[in-house]
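Record 1 of the preview.
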Amino acid sequence: MQEIHIVDIRKLAETIKEKYNYDFTNYAMSSFKRRVSRILELYKFNNVESLIKKISESEAYFQEFLSEITVNVTEMFRDPSFWRVLRDKIIPNILLNHQKISIWHAGCSSGEEVYSMAILLKEMGILESSKIVATDIDPIIIEKAKKGVYPIKNMDLNDKNYLRVQGTEDFNKYYEEKNGYAYMDKSLVENVSFRIHDLVNGMVFSKFDIVMCRNVMIYFNQTLQNDVLKKLHESIFKYGYLAIGSKESLIWCEIANKFIVVNNEEKVYKKIKE
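->
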């Protein structure tokens, strides 16, 4: 297979932006290039030119491409210590001044994080009074998140994470096993609004007590991270919280001074200025 040049990647990003209004021009180049390379291999394209042609001609294929390019490997209760901080410190803090809690999962992928949150809130006795919005750019992955059906082999790691969070139940009570798949309990997401939303081009649509945007921005370059963080800041109530991924940071961005660090280890920040 031929080597992929930056000029090819730029042309691909420009075609997508022009035809489908999805903007990949500010994605971290190395990560985007790696994923495009995987797609060429997976679908047996000889070069980026052929991929561009296929994307231009077929919207259905573009949706497949979108799912492949934005796929995030995820698990339930990823980074268990983060979930303990959320349950023991952050949420109780919010509930000192509010009777209800609102949460946005930005870039929710296949929904594991959303189910983790729902289980946490259920065990705290506040799931029914919570408002949760879960969004992703990819319509196919949002459908997957809504369904909450995962390979049973994944549940072993999810169970181990749950034990490390020190949940109060048996983890397997939250799903039913059928034909090699785990079907999550539907009542967990009755209050969840799953929506298609583009973090890059999308509007600010509401305000929340907690915004979860973990391990999404590592795929963006600094310009785009800056733009997205401004949007996230606007989406949080004053004294609300932002949680980002363990390899991500706010330190360098324009709105850094509008937050204080609540937990540096777990990358949790509190908004202190509009």
